[in-house]
Fold each of these.
Amino acid sequence: MKIFFSTSSPYVRKCMAVAHELGIADRIEKLPNAAHAINRDANIVKSNPTGQVPTFFCGDGTVLFDSVVICEYLDATFGGKLFPKSGRERWARLTEHAAADGILGAALLARYEATLRPETLRWPDWSSSQLKKIRSGVEWVEGIAESLPDRVDIGTLAIGCALGYLDFRFSDMNWRSQAPKAADWFAGFSQRAAMTATAPRG
Ligand SMILES: N[C@@H](CCC(=O)N[C@@H](CS)C(=O)NCC(=O)O)C(=O)O
């Protein structure tokens, strides 16, 4: 198995954290690439029309994207313990996954605005609206924080990666002051081997 990888991508991190929890991370070869929202990497585009990381090669010719699909594929193929199979538990965990990815989507857009868009073309209302989305996502996580302890599943892994990305790229936001219960949970969860092994860099 192979993955177009990045040490700074929270979506790649989520896939690799899932792989670590399933005990198969060392079976995934990390492929270098130059994923970039403006200067797209044609080599990724050959396999994934979005040109984004993560892009995953199953080893039998199948290519998977995006991270939501890759995470569920890994779990279904190598253990089946991180995604509940059916019922309310499943929808709850998938909704947590979506909330975490919602935080990340807004965070990435805000970052691109601040780092990629030429300064003269920047639109402050755009950035502040993405920051509001991040904040309402964090508030949502705080609302379910009492359900997080003692769970290792796609919901907690995705939320852990999203909060970790805020620490990595948006430390000025001080999300912990807005979400003290989630912060307490995150302090412990981020010490899991799957989280320390995938901590963002770059
Ligand atoms: N929805 C995608 C998002 C992936 C994504 O945004 N990846 C970023 C890196 S964190 C990327 O490849 N950016 C380059 C681009 O957008 O072209 C997923 O869940 O995998």
Amino acid sequence: MDKKEIKAVHDDDLETLLSNLNILNDVKSGKKKCRFCGCVIDLDNLEAIFPDSGDIKFVCSNPECLKQFYLFLEKENV
Ligand SMILES: [Zn+2]
């Protein structure tokens, strides 16, 4: 996944995207957590994903997390 390749996720292609990244099963089985608040990510509350330190991080739909996500993007200059 390219560093510039930030994905804002929409319901339609969410499962396809996660499947392409080989993380769909992890999300479905509750293994992934929000990068900012630490809540368990599922298909309903997943708002965005982004690459960080060679890993893929998740952002939940909590407005506070989205705010932090955008601050993070500015700081990282991506
Ligand atoms: Zn969160």
